[in-house]
């Protein structure tokens, strides 16, 4: 779990990424948050923690609506708000944490549409069902036929 200066990133194991990320962050840190976007997906085959199977780690960008941390000691060893630039360039973190922090720095500087995967709900081919499709934002001129 990564707590940055404005965003919290956490692993999600269910199909409804946003709702799951919000719930997990609240349970593990006590911080209330709103889903902003899907930011990244890590895929690793033969993952030791997944009994040698493939593992997917979904990283969401959330916006906190509360800032007081009351973390669960069974879930987290430590939890604190950190300066994002410091987190991006410290040698005391994992490669994935450093990379995600750098993505967030880029998003702050150049705009989050440059890094976010947005979600659209689309009708499935099965009657009455729908699905969530995550992708880079599509320009408005491509949304309608023209």
What would the keywords be for this entry?
single chain, 146 residues, alpha+beta, two-stranded antiparallel sheet, 4 helices, 6 strands, 27% helix, globular, disordered N terminus
Q: How does the SSE layout of this entry go?
A:
Blueprint: E1 2-3, E2 8-9, H1 17-29, E3 33-44, E4 55-64, H2 84-89, H3 95-110, E5 118-123, E6 130-135, H4 140-143
Antiparallel strand pairs: 1-2, 3-4, 5-6
Order of strands, widest sheet? 1-2
Structural class: alpha+beta
Roughly what percent helix? 25-40%
Which residue ranges are poorly predicted, with pLDDT under 50 across at least 5 consecutive positions?
1-14
Q: What is the beta-strand fraction? A: 25-35%
- Report how far apart the termini are: 45 Å
The rounded Rg comes to 17 Å
Tell me the major beta sheet: 2 strands, antiparallel
Calculate the mean pLDDT score and round it: 84
Q: Sketch the topology as an H/E string, one letter per element.
A: EEHEEHHEEH
Describe the structure.
This protein is of the alpha+beta class and 146 residues long. The chain is 27% helix and 26% strand. The chain has 4 helices and 6 strands. A hairpin with a 4-residue loop joins β1 (2-3) and β2 (8-9). The longest helix is centred in the last third of the chain and has 16 residues, at 95-110. The protein is globular.
